[in-house]
Model the fold of this input.
Amino acid sequence: MSDIIINEVGLRDGLQNQSCPITTDDKQRLFSSLWNSGLRNFEVTSFVHPKAVPQMADAEAVMQFLPDADDAEFTVLVPNRRGYERAVAAGAKAVAVVLTATDTFNRRNIQMSLEQATAVCREIIDAAGGDNIYVRAYVSAACGCPYEGPVSSERVFSLVDAVAQADEISIADTIGCGGPRQISELMTPLVAEYGCEKFNLHLHDTRGLAVANAWAGLQAGVRRFDASIGGLGGCPFAPGAAGNLATEDLVVLLHQCGYSTGIDLEKLLQAIVVAEEIVGHPLGGRSRKWLQQQDLGSCQV
Ligand code: COA
Ligand code: ZN
Done:
């Protein structure tokens, strides 16, 4: 059992914004290389409208190539009831619903007001309880919104309260505008109120602070993090958002600080190469260059 769970979101958050079409076979190739590195938690796709996000149009086909393994958790993002129904029909055992902190961002992203989005999330959480499906609820744009600007901690706390029936809540700095102090001010009271098992942190590296923010989360007691191979990522509905916290950067941070992850860095480097081949441009978090120079077989990073 690893100390920290890393949920690889490259296949969803990472690929959704790529401009070149990516085949299901290529997604499978990327998935296999990530799986070989030891990753067992993935957000694999989203059941959204294919016109809204064409890269996710093969969601049903992606579900077909996932292994049937007891130690794995595969989440799929569902923006609405129709997405949830598609996910269940495709055999999903875990779904992620999305509640964004501002009214404007909800409307741009999923064509719903904040109030409607809250009601839809709660409805899906209820339905999933009956269907024995695990639900993670994203509280997105938790550190700031590209349309409405700053988001207060109180707003985040009240949205967490609204989706508290979910099995897990992912606090997402969707545009990467937060800093370690803000993460600490959000996560310390949340962990104190609901317990650390309840939370995941989803970070983007727009300002180069994702690793510092992960550290602030760790200090606040968070033990689950999203990350994306090579820092792949960005949201089509969040102007200015850069890639996610790179999986390799998070693993380096955690191993260096003595936490186990179950992930083999040498194999993770191979997955970056596969991701680069698929998206057709260079990738890699801050640690990649250094990692490539190491003899990882003998190095204790
Ligand atoms: N998957 C596929 N089709 C869907 C769907 C889904 N999840 N939800 C709705 N549809 C279809 C409806 O069946 C309807 O089809 P019809 O015209 O043939 O009857 C049509 O889309 C319009 O339905 P409506 O409920 O009005 O949807 P919308 O146009 O308001 O779009 C979303 C809402 C949520 C489906 C769309 O905005 C979306 O997919 N957004 C995704 C955003 C995203 O992925 N963001 C990044 C991750 S947070
Ligand atoms: Zn994201």
Summary: The mean pLDDT is 96. The two ends are 19 Å apart (CA to CA).
